[in-house]
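User: Hi! I have a protein structure encoded as tokens and I'd like to know what sequence might fold into it. I'm fairly new to this, so please keep things simple.
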């Protein structure tokens, strides 16, 4: 361990070199170390690398940006507190999102944010950075964005939206039209699933009613539950969660409208209740219970309320080093 500590300290020291070649070589080695040896991630952070890596995110060099963001992502998997306690780190990640020298820079920056957002207490801090939110939204609505960048941006927006007070801001900055555009026009299975996961979170605030109405969002979620559309199981569960959240968190008129629309696809909701994950079944049964109260369906005897918050919902992503 002591050898690794000395190696990390030596490499970090080279980040201050006047030689660009020396700095670049050190960056590449730090990236590989942090990727291949999890034990070194904390050692690299303790050696003082994070302020240097943050500064390098402003570099116009694609190689420098790529290696710096990748190293920050790798460190964040094992050692998140040093990143969040480094002054200017979030601003540097925001810059990398808005001015990436290459697609992989934006991907690693967004993935780093999502890694940090797995810590509850960091969600309001990151969510208060409107430039970060806007940069993520800009990625998902830009048709020229790399598919991997879109997926990583969606995951970061999901993490941000887990904190209820962030949802209104995400909606205000224009996320809803961009998200539903992905669902309707993109067609790639993973993207649709990830986009509907974010939509389901945003549905859990009062502001979602007007925003969803402008893009016929409730109709889109209902269509996803139509058995003839062939939506994936996860997409269907996300659609159920979104509709349920709108009923529970929206204004009364919004809730009534959602229940009327959801009645059209009772068979699709019942399919989730019968064949979904345990959380999906709970949410579907709760939605059916609410519809039953409004339209006289016959399943209420079988239903069990969902006692789990959407914040604990399923998200199929694992931290992976790069």
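Assistant: Happy to help. Inverse folding works backwards from shape to sequence: for each of the 322 positions I chose a residue that suits the local structure. Here it is:
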């Amino acid at each position: 361990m002591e050898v690794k500590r000395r190696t990390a300290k030596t490499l970090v020291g080279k980040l201050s070199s006047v030689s660009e070649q020396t700095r670049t070589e050190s960056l590449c080695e730090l990236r590989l170390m942090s990727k291949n040896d999890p034990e070194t991630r904390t050692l690299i952070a303790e050696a003082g690398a994070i302020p240097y890596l943050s500064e390098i995110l402003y570099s116009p060099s694609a190689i420098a940006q790529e290696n710096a963001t990748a190293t920050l992502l790798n460190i964040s998997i094992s050692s998140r507190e040093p990143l969040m306690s480094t002054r200017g780190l979030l601003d540097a990640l925001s810059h990398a999102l808005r001015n990436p020298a290459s697609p992989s820079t934006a991907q690693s920056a967004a993935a780093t944010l999502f890694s940090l957002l797995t810590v509850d207490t960091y969600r309001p801090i990151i969510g208060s950075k409107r430039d970060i939110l806007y940069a993520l939204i800009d990625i998902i609505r830009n048709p020229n964005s790399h598919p991997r960048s879109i997926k990583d941006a969606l995951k970061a927006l999901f993490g941000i939206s887990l904190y209820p007070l962030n949802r209104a801001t995400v909606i205000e900055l224009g996320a809803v039209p961009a998200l539903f555009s992905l669902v309707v026009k993109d067609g790639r299975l993973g993207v649709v699933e990830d986009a509907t996961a974010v939509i389901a979170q945003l549905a859990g605030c009062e502001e979602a009613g007007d925003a969803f109405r402008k893009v016929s969002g409730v109709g889109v979620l209902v269509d996803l539950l139509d058995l003839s559309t062939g939506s994936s199981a996860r997409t269907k569960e996300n659609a159920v969660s979104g509709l349920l959240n709108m009923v529970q968190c929206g204004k009364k008129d919004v809730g009534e409208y959602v229940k009327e629309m959801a009645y059209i696809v009772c068979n699709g909701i019942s399919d989730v209740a019968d064949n979904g994950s345990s959380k999906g079944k709970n949410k579907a049964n709760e939605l059916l219970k609410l519809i039953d109260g409004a339209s006289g369906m016959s399943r209420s005897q079988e239903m069990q309320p969902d006692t789990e918050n959407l914040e604990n919902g399923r998200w199929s992503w694992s931290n992976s080093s790069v």
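A useful reference point when you look it over: The CA atoms of residues 40 and 124 lie 29 Å apart. Feel free to ask if any position seems puzzling.
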